[in-house]
Structures are given as C-alpha cells and as structure tokens.
UniProtKB/TrEMBL annotation:
Summary of the function given for this chain in its UniProt record: Claudins function as major constituents of the tight junction complexes that regulate the permeability of epithelia.
Family, as annotated: Belongs to the claudin family.
Subcellular location: Cell junction, Tight junction; Cell membrane
Protein name per its UniProtKB record: Claudin
Originating organism: Polyodon spathula (North American paddlefish)
Keywords: Cell junction, Cell membrane, Membrane, Tight junction, Transmembrane, Transmembrane helix
Gene from which the chain derives: Cldn7a_0
Residue segments, region Disordered: 189-211
Keyword presence, Transit peptide: no
Bilayer-spanning residue ranges: 6-27, 79-97, 118-141, 161-184
Any single Pfam family the record assigns to this protein: PMP22_Claudin
Length: 211
C-alpha cells in the first residue's frame, strides 16, 4: 500500500502546479518582442499572451488590449488556449478525486483498497491534465521558434519566449510529477483469499469393523 506521506506530497505538488497553470494562462507574457537586427528600439516592448497583447513602455506604463475575435486568431493560439483550459479543468477534477482516496481523509469510506484505487484514478487524471498543458506549451514554443528562424519574418515582428510560458511549463511538470506520485497508490495484490490445505478426498470406505 502506498505511503500516506507520498500521497500528500504528490497532492501538494499537483496543487502548486495547478496554480502555476492558472497564472501562466492568465499572464500576457507568453512571447515578447526580440531585439534582433541593426535597428533596435527599446522604448516599447511588445508582449503577446493567450488572451491579450500588451505594450510595455520604458516609462513603466503598460497598455493591454484583449483580442476582439476568436475566429481571427491563428490555430496554434486557439489550440494552446483549449489545451491549457483542459489541463486546468482536469487538474481540478484530479484534486476532487484524489482527495476522496487519500489516506489522510475520511472521504471514500474505510476500505483501504478502494481508497487507494480512487487516489490512483485521481493521479491518472492529474497526469492527463499535466500532459495536455505540456503539449500546449510545447506547441506554442515550437511556433515561436519557427517564426523566429523564418527568413521571411520581418525583424520587428520576431518574438522570443516570455516568462508566462516558463511558468506554465513548470506548472505542467509539477502536475505530472504529483499525479505520478498519486498514481503509485495502486494497491498490491496479496493473492486473494487465504488458502487452506485441501482435505484428502476419496471414495467412502465400505469396510465394516466386526467385533
């Protein structure tokens, strides 16, 4: 049977990763303007996120604009949005399921094997959610790299990684790690019911004792 300390550690790592996914999804710094080329203008820094684009001026002011239409966005951004939301929702479901199966809680009954299986299911849900967020981050990062090294991309429109994508990456790894720890709650087979030695069977004795 899995150690309760391992379950608690996995649960808290997954919760911290879930918070990281939320923070990374909300932040607009998924990609930031890259200062490459001969003409470098540092007065304004451009940021683009999943929900808005921002301009940060050297005076310390930031102006953000929410994307007006979803249909005008490219497919990579829409897919990243969807996968991040799926990862957050699955992490919430994993928290609810694993809470019922952890040894330190009274939910899910007193059956230890049943609770261990519930915790294992919660860990698997965490794993799926973390993988969805990880795929989203990798997809978005791949798009940034391709546009950066594309020779037809104008120099002033090239972007590099922002801080939000690193936070989302770290959150997805923590969710996967916590889910793996909870998935280790799978109960071991003990061989089933206790076996007793079989009684010798044979034809009934037909001999009679005579006095």
């Amino acid at each position: 049977m899995a150690n309760s300390g391992l379950q608690i550690l996995g649960f808290f790592l997954a919760v911290i990763g879930w918070i990281g996914l939320i923070v990374g999804t909300i932040m607009p710094q998924w990609k930031m303007s890259a200062y490459v080329g001969d003409n470098i203008v540092t007065a304004v820094a451009m940021y683009q996120g999943l929900w808005m684009s921002c301009a940060f001026q050297s005076t310390g002011q930031m102006q953000c604009k929410v994307y007006d239409s979803i249909l005008q966005l490219d497919s990579a951004l829409q897919a990243t949005r969807a996968l991040m939301i799926v990862g957050i929702i699955l992490s919430v479901m994993g928290m609810g399921i694993s809470t019922m199966g952890m040894k330190c809680t009274n939910c899910g009954g007193d059956d230890k094997v049943r609770k261990a299986r519930i915790a294992m299911v919660g860990g698997i849900v965490f794993l799926i959610g973390g993988l969805a967020a990880l795929i989203a981050c990798a997809w978005f990062a791949n798009r940034i790299i391709r546009d950066f090294y594309n020779p037809f991309t104008p120099v002033n429109t090239k972007y590099e990684f922002g801080s939000a994508i690193f936070i989302a990456w770290a959150g997805s790894f923590l969710v996967i790690l916590g889910g793996a720890m909870l998935a280790c709650s799978c109960p071991r087979r003990t061989g089933g019911a206790r076996k007793y030695p079989r009684a010798k069977s044979g034809p009934p004795s037909t001999t009679k004792e005579y006095v």
